[in-house]
Each structure stands twice: as structure tokens, then as C-alpha cells.
Amino acid sequence: MHCSGLLDRDLERVLYGRAKLCPTVNAMACYDGYDEVNERVYKILGSGGLSLGDPVSAFRELFAEDELAVAGDVDEHQELVSLLLTDDAAASAFRSAGMNAVLTRHTYAHRAAQVCSLLAYPMTPSLQPEAPSIG
Fold first, then answer.
1. Which residue blocks in 6-131 are alpha helix, DSSP H?
2. For 97-125, what is the mean pLDDT?
3. pLDDT digits over 92-110, tens only?
4. Is the pLDDT of residue 88 over 90?
5. pTM of the prediction?
6. Which residues are within 8 A (CB) of 94 and not within 5 positions of it... i.e. 6 or more apart?
7. H/E element holding 23?
């Protein structure tokens, strides 16, 4: 399969959810103190996918250790890849916890609520983030 350009949103969700493991690699600026992470981590985890992040500090501010696997160095990266590809229980636990984290704390509705709060702008009930139904 050859892909170039943007993926269809529905296909992207299916691909992330079905992949054995999806790396989340951030821009070099993220290593220089910028609190920014690749949007892909939210897409992967929100799709029920399994992500392995690179060692940017913002990941640990956003996700607990049981929600997102983050490798601190090359050796740990290799260990985590091996674990996540061979231990179905560990992979399943990360998938479940990661998806729950995104749906309960990191949706666009959550970000809109944060921005409105910072601007002291009242949120209308229709814009309030809803609790997800995780099946």
C-alpha cells in the first residue's frame, strides 16, 4: 500500500487502531523546552491504537506512565518495542488506558474549554465536553 498526502479521517482512525505499534516522533523544537507535541499521539490513542513516544517532557505532563509508553533512550526504546510487540496484555493495557486518557482529557472540546477558561469566556452547555462512553 502506497500513501502520499493526507489520509481520509475514517481510514486514518482504522489504521491507527489496527496497527501493532505507532511511533510518535516530535519536532526537534520539542526537545528545546517547547511544550508542544505531535497531534498524532492524540489520534493514535483516541483510535484505540498503541503509541510509543519519544522522550519529550510534555508527554509526561499530559499522560501517565501507564497511558503512553515513552522511551528515554535508544536502549529503552528497543526494550519497549520488544515488550509492546510480544506482550499482548501490556499492549492491551496501554491501548485501553491511552484511549481513556484522550477521551476523558484531551478532545477538541476539552481544549476549547481550556481556552475559554483562560479567556474568562463562559462555555455554553452545548460546548461542554461530555463524558465518553468507553465500551
1. 9-18, 40-46, 57-62, 74-86, 88-105, 108-118
2. 85
3. 999 999 999 999 998 888 8
4. yes
5. 0.80
6. 50, 66, 67, 68, 69, 84
7. strand 22-24
Q: Within a domain: residue 80? A: yes
53 DSSP β-pair partners: 24, 70
Is 79 part of a structural domain of the chain? yes
Any domain includes 111: yes
For 29, which DSSP code?
G
Whether residue 5 contacts residue 11, with contact meaning beta carbons closer than 8 Å, is answered with: no
In a domain, 44, yes or no: yes
Residue 6 is given by DSSP the state: P
Q: How confident is the model at residue 132 (pLDDT cuts 50, 70, 90)?
A: low
Residue range 14-60, pLDDT digits in tens? 999 999 999 988 765 555 666 678 889 999 999 999 999 988 888 88
- Count of domains observed in the chain: 1
Q: Which domain holds residue 99?
A: 9-127
CATH number for the domain including 19? 3.40.50.2000
- Nearest Cα neighbor of 98 from 52, 48, 132 is 48
Please tell me the distance from the alpha carbon of residue 62 to that of residue 30, in angstroms, as a whole number.
Answer: 14
Q: Which three cell numbers stand for residue 106?
A: 484531551
Contact 95, 48 (CB under 8 A): yes
